[in-house]
Amino acid sequence: MSTTNKYKGIRRRKWGKWVSEIRVPGTQERLWLGSYSTPEAAAIAHDVAFYCLRETSSPEKLNFPSMLPASARTGLSPRSVQNAASDAGMAMDAQLSSKNKLFISEYCEPPGEWSGQSREGEALSISVEDYL
């Protein structure tokens, strides 16, 4: 696995997890945004926190400007920003994990082992906004 990343505000631990943290503007305080399985999840957590803390209108400062949840807003306490960012990152990890399971099911497992659908027969669908 490569140790380089293409996203802002994240880094990879030696054991493979991706983590994100951010400084609170005007202080030396850092907010821990979480540890994630994918770099995309850590990056979306950073984007949410960055936007909530700095309200940037510059899309180039975000990793995924088009994926910023509509519920992301400024004026939150650092703890609320931390929670919103963590929830967004976990939602992204869950979404990517379910897509990976569908890929594995379709291309790597024998037919009939895993259907890629929930017990009720509905396809899995998770949105970052479901967690904010």
UniProtKB/TrEMBL annotation:
InterPro entries xref list: AP2/ERF_dom (IPR001471), AP2/ERF_dom_sf (IPR036955), AP2/ERF_TF_ERF_subfamily (IPR051032), DNA-bd_dom_sf (IPR016177)
Task: Specify whether Ribosomal protein is a keyword of the entry.
Answer: no
Q: Where is the segment annotated Disordered?
A: 111-132
What SMART domains does its record include? AP2
Q: Where in the cell is it found?
A: Nucleus
Any single GO CC term annotated in Swiss-Prot or TrEMBL for this entry: nucleus
* GO function terms (MF aspect): DNA binding; DNA-binding transcription factor activity
Q: Which Gene3D superfamilies match?
A: AP2/ERF domain
UniProt keyword list: Activator, DNA-binding, Nucleus, Transcription, Transcription regulation
Domain (AP2/ERF): residue spans on this chain: 6-65
Sorted alphabetically, which CDD domains does this protein's record hold? AP2
Q: Which residues cross the membrane?
A: none
Q: What is its main location?
A: nucleus
What Pfam families does the annotation carry? AP2
**Which protein family is named in the record?**
Belongs to the AP2/ERF transcription factor family. ERF subfamily.
Question: Any idea what this protein is called?
Answer: AP2/ERF domain-containing protein
State the organism of origin: Fraxinus pennsylvanica
